[in-house]
Amino acid sequence: MPFEHARRCLAPGAAILELGVGLGRTIGFTSALTNDYRAIDYVPAMVDACRARHPGVRVDLGDARTLDGVPDGHFGLVTFAWNGIDAVTHADRARVLRTVRRVLAPGGLFFFSTLNMDGPDRRTRPWHLDGFPPTRNLIVAARRALWTARYVTRGLVNWARLLPATESGSGYQVAPLAAHDFGLLVHYTSLPRQIDELESAGFGSTRAFAADTGASLSCGDDTSAITYFHLVTTASSR
After folding, report:
1. What value does the CA radius of gyration of the chain take, rounded to a whole number of Å?
2. How far apart are CA 180 and CA 193, in angstroms?
3. Distance of alpha carbon 207 from alpha carbon 218, whole angstroms
4. What single DSSP character describes residue 156?
5. CB under 8 Å to 23, separation ≥6 — which residues?
6. β-bridge mates for residue 209, sequence order
7. Which residues make Cβ contacts (< 8 Å) with residue 182, sequence separation at least 6?
């Protein structure tokens, strides 16, 4: 699996920085790999909650775009899992990549996840509904109709609200996310575009994996059925 690949490549005892740690669901297996662990989140309430859940673990308030106060070239592994990088704007995404490269030691690893522009989620719209199995039960049918009406209404309202803020370019799109009733604006990218962005930010070899199956991917593969990618990339020597 992708994180297991990163773990195998990690130098023993190397410092680890976890971005967008949230409530800390990944702290247990990530912090166990090192005695030099640090986690950062952008939301003060998340930092407070994470500290309460994981006493003794260093959890700081910070911005992945700048990482103020984080030393250059210190970390052997930086993680930004579960599509956290997709919450920033397209321009800020490049800032995050450059900043992560700054704090990584040469040969250090960056493990992150990102939504696939060519995948099924990006193509979903509020009016796209999966069919329910047939039923002759009028109560069940009525409940389904009520749920469908509410779902479509919420989705359409959110879609219309966020539509002016959408953005498209070569190999990327900023668009509403279906998983939250189209109420969140997120960044999607194609695999070739992501590889190019990593190279521009100072990263070298990159391994990509399908999040749905863990299968290894290469540029040119058909990714139309893949929701998002996991990537493990290496900081180039300067």
Report:
1. 20
2. 25
3. 8
4. H
5. 46, 49, 50, 53
6. 216, 230
7. 126, 154, 155, 158, 159, 162, 176
Question: Hey, what are 204's tokens?
Answer: 């070298």
Distance CA 37, CA 30 (A): 8
Residue 2 β-bridge partners = none
CB 203 within 8 A of CB 101: yes
What's the one-letter identity of residue 186?
A: V
> What is the distance between the alpha carbons of residues 223 and 205, in angstroms, rounded to a whole number?
20
Residue 147, class by beta-carbon neighbours within 10 Å (0-12 exposed, 13-18 middle, 19+ buried)?
exposed
Q: What is the pLDDT of residues 94-105, one digit of tens each?
A: 999 999 999 999
pLDDT in tens, 161-211: 999 999 999 999 999 999 889 999 999 999 999 999 999 999 999 999 999
pLDDT at 238: 62
Residues 172 and 188: beta-carbon distance below 8 Å? yes
Residue whose pair of structure tokens reads 């397209």 in the numeric block: 90
The amino acid sitting at 147 is W
- Residue 117 tokens read as 């522009």
Distance CA 56, CA 37 (A): 11
Backbone conformation region of residue 111, classed left if phi is above 0, alpha if psi is from -120 to 50, else beta? beta
**Distance between CA 48 and CA 98 in Å, rounded?**
28
pLDDT band at 135 (very low <50, low <70, confident <90, very high): confident
pLDDT value at residue 202: 96
Q: What is the pTM of this model?
A: 0.91
